[in-house]
């Protein structure tokens, strides 16, 4: 479920007058280990802060608004963790491609002149590696850029 849909679902619980429904939703998201439970927690604290203001209990309102800020920060951190995990999984999934790229670059550095154009180097590499011409040319181009940058 997308974050937008989760937020919509959480807000639908917020609009209900029955706080039991809100507590049930909180338990559900906590049990699932879903980062969206932090958003739900923020909504609950915000609701409590508004009620505290209505009762002129400003200390309680301040504490609840601080908890809103903390819960949103926790949600943001959980999303960052999700992105890091996705990146790690992508690297694992493309490990063979990365290994092949390293092989191609090593072969190019050892056997092909740096002065040759990317296209001419790719014509030589295509005889050694089962990759497309454009892919090999791109590998050579990227390696040349790195080499030039390291000389500076």
Short synopsis of the structure:
With 152 residues, the chain is an all-alpha fold.
Give a count of the beta strands, DSSP E runs of length 2 or more. Answer: 0
How far apart are the first and last residues' alpha carbons, in Å?
48 Å
Total number of distinct structural domains: 2
Tally of individual helices: 7
Strand count, sense and closure of the main sheet? none
- Overall morphology: rod-shaped
Which series of helices and strands comes N to C?
HHHHHHH
Strand content: under 5%
Q: Quickly give the structural class.
A: mainly alpha
Write down the Rg.
27 Å
Fraction of residues in helices?
over 70%
Oligomeric assembly: single chain
Q: Low-confidence stretches at least 5 residues in length (pLDDT < 50)?
A: none
């Amino acid at each position: 479920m997308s974050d937008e849909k989760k937020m919509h679902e959480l807000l639908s619980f917020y609009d209900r007058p029955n706080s039991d429904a809100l507590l049930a939703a909180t338990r559900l998201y906590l049990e699932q280990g879903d980062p969206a439970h932090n958003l739900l927690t923020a909504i609950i604290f915000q609701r409590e802060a508004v009620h505290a203001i209505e009762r002129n209990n400003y200390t309680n309102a301040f504490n609840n608004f601080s908890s809103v800020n903390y819960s949103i920060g926790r949600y943001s951190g959980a999303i960052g963790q999700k992105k890091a995990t996705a990146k790690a999984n992508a690297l694992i999934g493309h490990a063979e491609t990365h290994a092949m790229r390293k092989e191609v670059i090593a072969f190019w550095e050892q056997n092909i002149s740096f002065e040759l154009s990317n296209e001419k180097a790719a014509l030589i590499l295509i005889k050694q590696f089962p990759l497309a011409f454009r892919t090999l040319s791109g590998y050579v181009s990227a390696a040349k850029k790195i080499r030039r940058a390291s000389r500076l």
